[in-house]
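Supplementary Methods, section 5.1.

A reviewer requested that the exact input to the structure prediction be made available. We therefore reproduce it here, unchanged from the version used in the analyses.
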Amino acid sequence: MNAKAALVRSAGAPFEFIDVELTPPRAEEVLVRIVASGICHTDVAVRNQDVLLPLPMVLGHEGSGIVEAVGSEVRHLAVGDHVVLSGDSCGHCQSCHRGLPSYCDEFIPRNLTGQRIDGSSPMRGAEQDLRGRFCGQSSFATYTVASGRSAIKVPKDLPLELLGPLGCGLTTGVGTVMNALRPSPGSSLVVFGVGTVGLAAVMGAKLCGVAKIIAVDRLDARLDLALDLGAHHALRADDKVVASIRELTGGGADFAVECSGVPIAVRQAVDCLGRPGMAAQVGATPAGTEIAMSMDHMGFGRGLKGVVMGDAATATFVPYLAELHRAGQLPYDRFVRYYDFSDIERAIHDSSVTGEVIKPILTMP
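The structure derived from this sequence is encoded token-by-token as follows.
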């Protein structure tokens, strides 16, 4: 099978469109024709090497598409099924059995090396084997051979080109609130950084009945959208934001979600908490980042929890989110903009440089 892929060769280099050859799917794999793929902040961070993963690599981890071939051991999918692609996992370690595939014992080699667990890749270029298994999928390509555990069946009557971000950004934001923090109705929650993940966290908090949802960002347009999607208050990110949150909440928030990856925002997410309180760290900070915390402040029942993929069992959580969208309770289509695959650089510029677009989605030819 031949395909077109967008390859990153070195740190900060532009995406290079190349022809690739795909090996047939193994017993536990599926061949998927990619219909669309969201661009996530992590894709850009790896390209720029703010997140240090090996290059060259074909990135993309919010793919949606149609199954073209199925390995002999894949039982939950058939040719023609519509799927959302998410991360890979082994399926047999303790974390996988607990419904936490993003904490799989083999998460790093399966998702962050761009290779299969045995070090091979299903994708080959003219010169060499390529790292074509990023997050179980490498969906910046017209076709991909993905792990069967990465492919999640979704209803055919939903718009397939819209569904890819359910596999990462929406699962991360909604899941962090629903699964990791579990706020009770009537509680207060602050979201730092209202891009895709942060807006998903706002919508997740609304679904949980949180009484006081506070959005924090530097861009007024994003704060306005957060208010439209369920936030009760919107604050500009500055050095006074912690004091403003404490005033709004009468002493401190019950929960906070840090989605920007900005180190000072991580500290503020903890500093704004009441007693007790819990913050979730979701945003990817630059490699090697260390953050000082006040242990006196932490010692009064406050905590910081790192969260990957919203602590979600993606095989069931992604279809759940799809049905929430169908019911009008997860209207993330309001912050999506579509781009042709060939316009990947413009899509990244509009989302990561100017910030005018929150969730760019690449549509394949």
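The mean pLDDT is 96. These observations are discussed further in the main text.
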